[in-house]
Amino acid sequence: MNEPYNLLVDIGNTFVKWGRYKSNSAAPAHKSCLDSGHALLEEIPALAGQLRKFPAPTQILISNVAGTRVRATMLRLLEIWPDASAPCWLIPQEAQCGVKNGYRNPAQLGSDRWAALIGARALHGSRPVLVVCCGTATTVDLLTAEGQFAGGCIMPGVGTMLRSLHEKTAALPDADGVYTEYPVQTVDAIVSGCQHAQAGAVERIYDLYRRDHADLLCLVSGGAAKALTPHLAIVFRYHDNLVLEGLHCISRSLARDGCDRLTGTA
How do the residues of the chain divide into helix, strand and coil, expressed in percent and rounded to 5? Predict the structure, then answer.
């Protein structure tokens, strides 16, 4: 329990995921992880009960796409370690950990997308990768063999699609349906249609980018990934959390180069 570790945190739009990773490990994230967990954003204060049993981390690195209110909540949580160094808040760079940022304004790229791209590069080297992250939104990003983030798309996640149909229509129910190839009741028709929309979009983008990247790998991650993957008609690989994988890679670079140059501080 007293082994030096880095605390890595992925704050999304619905959930926060965290992991404790060995500070001095050059191994991939899944081989360096001491333990991990997740919670809804409104449950962040309750994480104090889980985390205070550990000593202060050597380093704290956070990706946050949920805004300033959640950032403030996270800072209050981290007060359980008065002697800990200030957390580093990930800000996408023009280049980092072998990945070059193709956004017109690199800092405007979501920090979760940036970390996921870095995680994909760390895992698959010089192979081109279509990075699909499924959550409140679904993002589909192209990473070339040269490590260039060449662009990507954002669409509503399947849960967001389902809620939107219920909230914006008077007659469509808010009830649990199941995916089926031939839906014969409304709740199943809604779920099946949203799953087709997700899978069809990913497959379309994959086919588009594969024209110029013949060895393109589809890498799927995120909390809603397991709902998508059974419906994909393309070959893919699944990763439990690419954002934490990328944060682990970035944390090793921070140990060499320092927090201020590569991220924002609290």
Answer: 40, 25, 35
Question: Whole-model pTM?
Answer: 0.91
The Cα-based distances of 82 to 27, 60, 87, 181 in angstroms read 29, 13, 12, 55
User: In this predicted model, what pLDDT tens digit does every residue of 22-78 receive, in sequence order?
Assistant: 987 777 777 889 999 999 999 999 999 999 999 999 999 999 999 999 999 999 999
Q: In which residue ranges of the chain is CATH 3.30.420.40 found? A: 125-241
**Residues designated as active site:** 112
pLDDT in tens, 207-241: 999 999 999 999 999 989 998 999 999 999 999 89
Q: What is the DSSP letter of 11?
A: E
List the beta bridge partners of residue 11.
16, 64
Burial bucket for residue 207 (CB in 10 Å: 0-12, 13-18, 19+): exposed
Q: Which CATH architecture has domain 125-241?
A: 2-Layer Sandwich (3.30)
5-92+244-265 maps to CATH 3.30.420? yes
- The Cα 119–Cα 237 span in angstroms is 13
* Cα–Cα distance, 186 to 183 (Å, whole number): 8
